[in-house]
Design a protein that fits this description.
Oligomer: single chain
Radius of gyration: 15 Å
Helix content: 55-70%
CATH architecture of one domain: Orthogonal Bundle
Largest sheet: 3 strands, antiparallel
CATH superfamily of one domain: Winged helix-like DNA-binding domain superfamily/Winged helix DNA-binding domain
CATH class of one domain: Mainly Alpha
Number of helices: 7
C-alpha cells in the first residue's frame, strides 16, 4: 500500500487527459510496454510534450521506463497501481479489506 501523499500524486498525474490516455494505453500494452515514439504516434502527441507527461507518471509511481539501447520502453507499473488500489480499498467492506484483496491481486500482468 502507498501513503496518502503518493496517492495524491498518482491522482494528480491521472487527472490530466493526455497522462490518463498514456497510462491506459500502457495498461492495454501489457508486459511488452511501448517505446516513447510509439506512444506519441498512437496518441498523436508531440514527443517532447509526451516526455514531460511520462516524467510525471514515472514520478507518481504509475509508469516505469526501461532503456533499450537508444530508446526507452515504457510500461504501466502494476505494483504502483496495486498500491493505489490498496490505498483506496483499505477501509472497504466495513473494515474487512481482506474481502477486496482478490481484486487488488488480480491487477497483475506478469
Amino acid at each position: 500500500m502507498i501513503a496518502k501523499p503518493d496517492a495524491l500524486a498518482a491522482f494528480a498525474a491521472l487527472g490530466q487527459e493526455t497522462r490518463l490516455d498514456v497510462f491506459r494505453l500502457l495498461v492495454r500494452a501489457g508486459t511488452g510496454g511501448l517505446a516513447a515514439g510509439d506512444i506519441a504516434a498512437r496518441l498523436d502527441t508531440v514527443p517532447n510534450t509526451l516526455s514531460a507527461h511520462l516524467k510525471v507518471l514515472v514520478q507518481a509511481g504509475l509508469v516505469r521506463g526501461e532503456r533499450h539501447g537508444r530508446s526507452i520502453r515504457y510500461h504501466a507499473d502494476m505494483a504502483g497501481l496495486r498500491g493505489l488500489l490498496a490505498y483506496l480499498m483499505e477501509d472497504c467492506c466495513r473494515g474487512a479489506p481482506e474481502l477486496c484483496a482478490p481484486v487488488i491481486a488480480a491487477v497483475a500482468c506478469d
